[in-house]
Amino acid sequence: MKVTFPHMGNMNLSIKSLFNNLGLDVIEPPPITKRTLDLGVKYSPEFACLPLKINIGNYIEALELGADTIIMGGGIGPCRFGYYAEVQKEILNDLGYDYEMIVLEPFQSRWENFIKQFKFIFKHVEWWKFISAWRLAWAKCEVIDKANEYVNQMRAYAIEPQSVTKLYKEFLRKLERTEDKRELYSLVIGLKDKILDLDLDMKRDPLKIGIVGEIYVVLEPFTNLNLEEKLGEMGVIVDRSIYLSDWVSEHLFSNASNTAKHHKIEEAAEPYLEHFVGGHGLETIGQTILYDEKGYDGVIQLAPFTCMPEIVAQSILPEISKERNLPVLSLVLDEHTGDAGFITRLEAFVDLLARKRRDQVGGQVI
Amino acid sequence: MKGYLGIDVGSVSTNLVLLNDNYQVLEKLYLRTQGRPIDTIQIGLKKLGEKIGDIQIKGVGTTGSARNLAGVIVGADVIKNEITAHAVAASNVVPGVRTVLEIGGQDSKIIILREGVVVDFAMNTVCAAGTGSFLDQQASRLSIPIEEFGELALQANSPVRIAGRCSVFAESDMIHKQQLGHCTEDIIAGLCEALVRNYLNNVGQGKEILEPILFQGGVAANKGIKAAFSEELDAKINVPKHHNVMGALGSAILAKEEMRQKKKTSFKGFDVSEFSYNVSSFECDSCPNSCEIINIYQDEELVARWGFKCPKWEAV
Asked: Where does B2-88+247-273 sit in CATH, by number?
């Protein structure tokens, strides 16, 4: 059995580690490239959203390398994601691939169920082995998110933001090879030290932008045209409202702190949206308001073209923006890989925020 | 005398504006880009250089979708996106302007200003139905010079209703109305109304459009569109004198601002029209991204390179 799975940001690092340590033979899909996108677009329904198409590209490229088992998540609720796996199965069947797809339906917050589902794949694995493999993979996931958060702040202070990105990539390469939890933590410390050794201008007071929106396009830089890097290079502190570790822990462990966190988002969204609308629609609204309360200069919403939950959110955002005097930029992402128009909008948005701030402190405005 | 140069290289037109120290336009040029931005920039500089005599260029700004390319060729002091450039020009021409409607060749935008500061903007996202290219195409289909398009619209008695959400729908709707026997004037007026409706629903969605309103971009020359805006918004629409070169005007102003901090301009001089610029591109085969890397040579020297997704080709 050779197992593969779709890409989503740096998720592959944790999943590969988990599967490997459970004794599975893993064939990771090659990094997402134009070819992945071309394959996905060619074989998916035209009106499907972008993540489905890229998933298809990932599967085909992995199957070409010899994978025979695909592990994919399922879902419930109004977002089309819940039906992804079924549609994808049909597409790959039509193409004549010989493979097995295992769909993990949402774990409904109970460990026993979660393990039961996994047992299906990992029949031979002892539970203690599973726990230790999980712990390492989980630590990797958390550590990546911590590092990413730090990097997104420090680019704004670095004289050469590109060197921060370079250090981050080097960190990810090292992390991939690390099999020891303690070593992981020292890797993060090492990354922070190296960044602090760079040429930094800590006297700057950078603009702060929060990113909200649909999870896949927020997490996957190929689809959002490296938004975090681009903003960082424009000297902006970037904060993502969604991290993989938060998302997993929210769905897996329904402990008090997670419930409280989500309750806060719902509460913030309440004046505008009172119930779940699928995907991350509600979170987009709630997090936008929380960013405003935390004093962020602006918010960018990312959505795949035709994403229903984000369309609901998008139609509410202008009102929030007006009432709270908080600039919000909605970016709709699809197949385009040319980023000139994207950069124009980002640049103009950053200019707008900079002038707004200067105006508030009574500076010179053209 | 001293001057500041602004260059806006867009998909359809390339504009140059020469500004003096008092923000007055000394010269302006409007050229068709015709898919050859480098040649057009060189021709533009040559023409401008011949016109202006011994004015000393103190600063240069570029904007538009080819702003980086233009910046490399002329040696720009400031390279800015077209939204900022248009907003700067608008608030310079009409201080206190609160709404800027801009319709260009391939994109359209709306800019909302309050107290001279951009507070909101939007650009058309996935649709070109409300842009100049579409009008251009329809004008040539009806064999009417685009310059007369607007005048004809004003002569309409009862504009026909044309679907405006999508240029494909609009075109088939137009043909259908033609075949029913409606006169050209009424159809053109209907098209202007459809375009305005589409613009306001799409680009202007949820925006608070307050007077004074400035309408600029190449399409602002079209009186039919201007009238349709005025009717739909029930407001006075101002079309500035230099409406078709506002981007270039804005970038000249930005260049002037920039030179307050910068000592010496990077302008390479009007002689750049003498250099030969060559562009070569190749497909990198290091990974399946197959990036198309573009090299820009000034004579034999490599002056810029772009198109890559990874650092491999970063160094020039």
From this structure: 3.30.420.40
